[in-house]
Amino acid sequence: MSYADTVYIETCRKILTEGVWDTDREVRPHWPDGTPAHTVKCFGIVNRYDLKKEFPIMTLRRTYYRSCIDELLWIWQKKSNNVHELGSHIWDSWADENGTIGKAYGYQLGVKHQYPEGMFDQVDRVLYDLKQNPASRRILTNLYNFNDLNEMALYPCAYSMTFNVSGNTLNAILNQRSQDMLTANNWNVTQYAVLVHMLAQVSGLEAGELVHVIADCHIYDRHVPLVEKLLEKEPLPAPKFYVNQEVKDFYRFTVDDFHFENYRFHEFREKIPVAI
Questions:
Q1: Cα(203)–Cα(247) distance, rounded to whole angstroms?
Q2: Angle between helices 185-202 and 122-132 (to 10 degrees)
Q3: Hey, which residues are catalytic here?
Q4: Can you tell me the distance from the alpha carbon of 205 to that of 166, in angstroms, rounded to the nearest whole number?
Q5: Largest distance between two CA atoms of the chain
Q6: Which residues pair with 41 in a beta bridge?
Q7: How many structural domains comprise the chain?
Q8: Residue 266 in domain
Q9: How far is CA 197 from CA 193, 208, 252, in A?
Q10: Taking the mean position of all CA atoms in its chain, how far away is CA 161?
Q11: What is the CATH classification number for the domain harbouring 166?
């Protein structure tokens, strides 16, 4: 069975059996009909995925990996905040009249900063250090810029990546302040596993471990019956993941350079409401 499914099932069961509800508090998120969107949550979830063993994509329901990777490239490669440059419509509800999400996500990665070696944005600095200074313990990115929070449509959920090279292996930690388990968990895991593979390949390294640290790991009230139905399904074997080995430049990757062989998944036709 897919290890991603095993982790997902264990995490959701922990939330449903041990989690704490916030129904006694006022909350910011709401449903499209205006009803407060309450959650049951666990604090401080840490999940580890060994990318050398298998790619962590779930089979309990389909992860639309092409759209998932497209969003990753929109943030990390295009460094964009304009939803018109994104192939899907997942950010449309957050966009302003100009089609931007403000100074969030890709915008932050594109801001240049002064280093002893010159001016770099956050992505280019990671690429530089992985090749020129792989022993560094300072290879990281951070999207949570307090100075710009008031100009962001949404504060970053997955906000920080720390990269660490051990031998010839690239490992990474993804820090996430908030995680909606039904709509976004495997979406984020898939994205950042792909990112580790991308950075490893262009840096002459092997993809190693992705550690996912989640502060507030939750299931929304209207998602509980959907998650329970999902947990009844039997996990399927993980597919094989392939990256176009000819790509050596981070900025040359496209969605078509990633392929899953024998990706089998369960149909899940229930409509999933999204809290905003």
A1: 11
A2: 50
A3: 157
A4: 10
A5: 55
A6: 20, 218
A7: 1
A8: no
A9: 6, 8, 14
A10: 10
A11: 3.30.572.10
Tokens 């250090």 label which residue?
129
Residues 6 or more apart whose CB falls under 8 angstroms from that of 128 comprise 117, 120
Which burial class, exposed, middle or buried, applies to 160 when counting CB atoms under 10 A from its CB (0-12, 13-18, 19+)? Answer: middle
E-strand ranges in the chain read: 20-21, 39-50, 113-115, 118-120, 139-142, 158-166, 169-180, 206-220, 240-243, 258-261
The H-or-E segment that residue 74 falls in is helix 65-76
In a domain, 269, yes or no: no
Residue at token pair 């990474």? 172
Residues linked to residue 142 through DSSP beta bridges, in sequence order = 160
- CA-to-CA distance for 135 and 218, rounded, in angstroms? 36
Q: In this structure, what token pair is assigned to residue 89?
A: 């419509």
The answer to whether the CB of 2 falls within 8 A of the CB of 209 is no
Structural domain of 111:
3-261
pLDDT for 117-154, tens place per residue?
999 999 999 999 999 999 999 999 999 999 999 999 99
Q: Tokens standing for 196?
A: 């580790």
Judge whether 65 and 260 are in contact, CB under 8 Å.
yes
pTM to 2 decimal places: 0.97
Do residues 15 and 231 lie in contact, with contact meaning Cβ atoms separated by under 8 Å? no
In this structure, is residue 276 part of a structural domain? no
Indicate the DSSP class of residue 147. Answer: G
**Is there a contact between 63 and 186 (Cβ–Cβ < 8 Å)?**
yes
Task: Encode pLDDT of 211-259 as tens digits.
Answer: 999 999 999 999 999 999 999 999 999 999 999 999 999 999 999 999 9
80 in a domain, yes or no? yes
- For residue 61, give the H/E element and its range: none
Cα–Cα distance between 148 and 170 in angstroms, integer?
Answer: 30
